[in-house]
Design goal:
Elements lengths: L2 H9 L4 H6 L9 E5 L2 H11 L6 E5 H13 L4 E3 L2 H8 L14 E4 L2 H11 L5 E4 L18 E3 L3 E5 L11 E5 L16 H13 L5 E5 L5 H8 L4 E6 L2 H13 L6 E5 L9 E7 L2 H14 E13 L3 H10 L3 E8 L2 E7 L2
Parallel strand pairs: 3-5, 7-8, 9-10, 9-12, 10-11, 12-13
Antiparallel strand pairs: 1-2, 4-5, 6-7, 13-15, 14-15
Length: 342
């Protein structure tokens, strides 16, 4: 590897994340703006489950460095972040899983090709994007305030909405949206959340200790308590999520059964009978050893938050940490899985 490539790969400050996520800022002479087509956004979303903005603002100096490395490597795909360069220069060996970043290639339009060639002097056919480099924040709203039934007995509804519950219904109430934008992930409408709820319904037993990592709105933690868990710890690193989850727990009258704490997995006191982790696949893979350590022998880890294209990445990491895959389910391109600790 040439010294200049080493510098780019390991030392230079990568600003592509800032560019990708600062689409509200007007473009300057120091950047080029690529307006994305619906087809490009749809392709990216299908492979990642995530959304791209309407345009990408790419810093010109960074773009020139990235394009120089890609051209020297003979690539027709332009990497837009440091880890995308790493994947280009150090590709994962054929047949191995989980050894490198997950990459999505988005074909460029003729206009975009022209923009990039004019700015860099190199012609590319596509963009090479590592989704894990793109900061994503989910904020769900109540598009449909009608109570939603998930699985056999769980019913999700906004506070104040009427619902004639049967004796078998396990009702989870969530603070209704107030238009302030304070909502966090977990209204029950997303397939990843629904998969988690269905799998929790099948695996939580009365008296279980349950950990909900990345609790968001607190929906999974409250559902676990409704299913009979004796003790539930809901963890999230985001202050807004902790506040919202605490409100959810209070609204459902479960303050004595569910504790909400701001923190990561280091805040959990093992072992747990059931651990739920509805989080991004790269985070699941990174935390796999710690997650496995929190599960008691004979207990289960319930994961979701992965699209089908990334399920193998999670399976490889969790199984390497000592758990065995017990079940895999899919819904609308998303995957929920249950791993058991021997």
């Amino acid at each position: 590897m040439m010294p200049c490539e080493q510098c780019l790969l390991y030392a230079c400050k990568c600003r592509s994340n800032e560019g990708i996520n600062s689409v509200s800022n007007p473009p300057t002479s120091d950047a080029i703006e690529l307006r994305l087509t619906p087809t490009q956004k749809e392709r990216y979303g299908r492979q990642t489950g995530l959304s791209l903005p309407s345009s990408l603002s790419l810093p010109l100096a960074q773009l020139k460095r990235l394009s120089g490395v890609a051209a020297k490597a003979g690539s027709e795909s332009l990497p837009v972040s440091r880890s995308a360069v790493r994947q280009l220069l150090e590709p994962e060996p054929s047949g191995e899983r989980g050894g490198g970043p997950f990459v999505v290639e988005v074909a460029l339009t003729p206009r975009q090709k022209e923009q990039i060639e004019r700015a860099t002097g190199h012609c590319f056919a596509s963009l090479r994007i590592v989704p894990d480099d793109v900061t994503v924040t989910y904020h769900e709203t109540w598009d449909d305030a009608t109570p939603l039934r998930v699985g056999r007995a769980i019913v999700i509804k906004p506070a104040g909405e009427p619902h004639e519950a049967s004796a078998a219904d396990l009702v989870v109430e969530l603070p209704a949206g107030d238009g302030s934008g304070r909502g966090v992930f977990g209204t029950g409408r997303h397939p990843a959340t629904q998969l988690s709820l269905v799998l929790l319904e099948e695996h939580v037993r009365p008296g279980d200790r349950v950990l909900d990592l990345g609790t968001g709105s607190g929906i999974l933690a409250v559902a676990a308590a409704r299913l009979g868990a004796g003790e539930v710890l809901a963890l999230d690193i985001e202050a807004a999520a902790v506040d919202f989850a605490q409100e959810t727990v209070s609204l459902n009258g479960l303050a004595g059964a569910v504790e909400v704490v701001r923190g990561g997995i280091g805040s959990a006191v093992a072992p747990y009978d059931v651990v739920a982790a509805n989080i991004f696949p790269n985070v699941l893979a990174e935390l796999a050893p710690s997650l496995a350590a929190t599960v008691r022998h004979g207990g289960v880890l319930v994961t979701s938050g992965s699209v089908a294209a990334r399920a193998e990445e999670v399976i490889g990491a969790v199984c390497a940490a000592g758990l065995g895959l017990e079940e895999r389910r899919s819904q609308d391109g998303w995957v929920g899985m249950v791993f058991k600790k021997p």
